[in-house]
Amino acid sequence: MASAGAPAIELRGICKAFGPVQANKDIDLVVPRGTIHGIIGENGAGKSTLMSILYGFYRPDAGEILIDGRPTQIADSQAAIRAGIGMVFQHFKLVRNFTVLENVILGAEDGALLRPSLSRARGELKRLAAEYGLQVDPDALVEDLSVGHQQRVEILKALYRRAEILILDEPTGVLTPAEADHLFRILRGLRDEGKTIVLITHKLREIMAATDNVSVMRRGEMVGSVRTAETGPAELAELMVGRKVLLRVEKPPAAPGAPVLELRGLRMVDAQGVERLRGIDLDIRAGEILGIAGVAGNGQTQLLEILGGFPEAGATLSGEIRLKGAPLALAGSNGRARRAAGIGHVPEDRQTEGLIMDFSAWENTAFGYQDAPEYNRGGLMDHAAIRADAADKIARFDIRPPDPELAAKNFSGGNQQKIVVAREVERDPDLLLVGQPTRGVDIGAIEFIHKRIVALRDAGKAVLLVSVELDEILALSDRIAVMFDGRIMGERLPDQATTGELGCLMAGVDPATRPEVVS
Ligand SMILES: Nc1ncnc2c1ncn2[C@@H]1O[C@H](COP(=O)(O)OP(=O)(O)OP(=O)(O)O)[C@@H](O)[C@H]1O
């Protein structure tokens, strides 16, 4: 039995070090039952480490965990599940070629895939889905589901295991705005049923909209817990970063010059014969930021990959790309050749495309630019020069920990992103391609990355920005193009576009022809 009135979670004096890095220092945290509790903090502040301790992935070096008032040892994730704790990770842990039902029961029951238990499980899954608004077809293969639906499966998996506490790590990073709204409705529903939710996010908007209380971490320490109703974004930002943060982008009006990138009739058919780009015409001028808005999966990824010089294997391309008036090869190119031509590229997925995760930070800062004269001496790569350059970038971008020898995989997500941005922006490219530049990045670093992108524009460079964050598109872009189903649905100026209008274009509806759909 739970002690009446005891908090769902209480952490006392939790400490955890990774070598010299003290990821959690003497952390206390109280999460009352039946509440949504936000955890915020800069990249590398120790949020994921703390939640991984609660979920049994790491053993703390010191400290105590109480669940419902009872001291509880959580040696592994099975123990966490027994204690009623479920976790939804940033990168889902589903088996892609299994059905929803198979994924939900996998590991939850003895003899998991036996028929009788399968039919019982199906009934239970349907009940949970109906009760919490988590509709999803039990027989669909996970690989055929949208990201939002895959996340529902993760939540259903936790509920099926009778989780009373649900931890979500950056759950909206991969969702569309509509999917994110739906998720928060679900979380409020779960809270109202008495469940306890812990939400890690970098988005203060989500903290303000969805949480009851919020705790702030900085550099491994817990610096404060407050009731959400009694605080605001500016105060939270300051607590997180330890200084005032501008929550908007300051930029002078653009002064566009000659076209840097010209696309004419760019088409791409993938190896399965699906037409992903259906004739893209775009111009980007020197000194301007063109933002491409759109729901993920409408061709933005393919566009960036082609421009960046690594189109999907087996794709057929046609059309024309010109960089400063000179034609660029469509296929048969590569990222190094594109970079040498003056195209910098911050890919959408830093882990698979932006970094080599097992390589050190210093090696990664040269990735794609190995041929640069300053990195080579006497026909050999000059490791000392690359290391010195990396140390300089680490200092100027405040990458933490400031250790050039650390493998990319051992940096937190936001610091990994800074390594990629530092490498590409510092090269002063004529055209910078940026995909989701601030995904998983804290607000201090967002401010910094946005400033660097604007500075590049002000130095007369062209920027192509792809982001699923409409706020980011609106804040940074000088012009906005909306992509839907492999086409440009329309172009708008940011100060003339409403989010309703952009939302319509993102859903494939042109408000110019159907004005009744824009409120
Ligand atoms: N397995 C590991 N080995 C070495 N260092 C690690 C490991 N896991 C985390 N760290 C370090 O511990 C610190 C805390 O990382 P953690 O991932 O908990 O931060 P976070 O607050 O979740 O960051 P982010 O918002 O970027 O996800 C960081 O300095 C990170 O580099």
Automatic annotation (TrEMBL):
<keyword id="KW-0067">ATP-binding</keyword>
<feature type="domain" description="ABC transporter">
    <location>
        <begin position="9"/>
        <end position="244"/>
    </location>
</feature>
<dbReference type="GO" id="GO:0005524">
    <property type="term" value="F:ATP binding"/>
</dbReference>
<keyword id="KW-1278">Translocase</keyword>
<feature type="domain" description="ABC transporter">
    <location>
        <begin position="261"/>
        <end position="510"/>
    </location>
</feature>
<comment type="similarity">
    <text>Belongs to the ABC transporter superfamily.</text>
</comment>
<dbReference type="InterPro" id="IPR003439">
    <property type="entry name" value="ABC_transporter-like_ATP-bd"/>
</dbReference>
<protein>
    <submittedName>
        <fullName>Nucleoside ABC transporter ATP-binding protein</fullName>
    </submittedName>
</protein>
<dbReference type="Pfam" id="PF00005">
    <property type="entry name" value="ABC_tran"/>
</dbReference>
<dbReference type="InterPro" id="IPR050107">
    <property type="entry name" value="ABC_carbohydrate_import_ATPase"/>
</dbReference>
<keyword id="KW-1003">Cell membrane</keyword>
<keyword id="KW-0472">Membrane</keyword>
<keyword id="KW-0547">Nucleotide-binding</keyword>
<dbReference type="GO" id="GO:0005886">
    <property type="term" value="C:plasma membrane"/>
</dbReference>
<dbReference type="InterPro" id="IPR017871">
    <property type="entry name" value="ABC_transporter-like_CS"/>
</dbReference>
<dbReference type="GO" id="GO:0016887">
    <property type="term" value="F:ATP hydrolysis activity"/>
</dbReference>
<dbReference type="InterPro" id="IPR003593">
    <property type="entry name" value="AAA+_ATPase"/>
</dbReference>
<keyword id="KW-0813">Transport</keyword>
<keyword id="KW-0677">Repeat</keyword>
<keyword id="KW-0762">Sugar transport</keyword>
<dbReference type="InterPro" id="IPR027417">
    <property type="entry name" value="P-loop_NTPase"/>
</dbReference>
